[in-house]
Amino acid sequence: MRTPGPLVLDALVWVVFAVLFVGAALLVKVAAALLVVLVVLALLLGLVLRALRKRRARPRR
Fold first, then answer.
1. Integer Rg of the chain from CA
2. What is the dihedral of CA 29, 35, 40, 44, to 10 degrees?
3. Which runs of consecutive H residues, i.e. helices, occur in 1-61?
């Protein structure tokens, strides 16, 4: 059984590199999207807590 030629190994290395590069880019996009979601949720939580605090601060008759 013959070993694959250098061109086949070179092509295989480039394919693996491309797969890893695309995977890393997708991971970065997912991390950025999660960061945006967390920031939005934190802002919404802050607004809700502020509204609840204002509602409690009003004196009752």
1. 27
2. 150
3. 6-57
Going from the C-alpha of 11 to that of each of 2, 8, 18, 19, 43, the distances in angstroms are 17, 5, 10, 12, 48
How far apart are the C-alpha atoms of 9 and 25, rounded to whole Å? 24
Specify the DSSP class assigned to residue 8: H
Round to whole Å and give the CA distance between 2 and 29. Answer: 42
User: pLDDT, tens digit, for every residue of 4-53?
Assistant: 688 888 999 999 999 999 999 999 999 999 999 999 999 999 999 999 99
Q: How confident is the model at residue 3 (pLDDT cuts 50, 70, 90)?
A: low
**Type of residue found at 46:** G
**pTM metric for this prediction:** 0.63
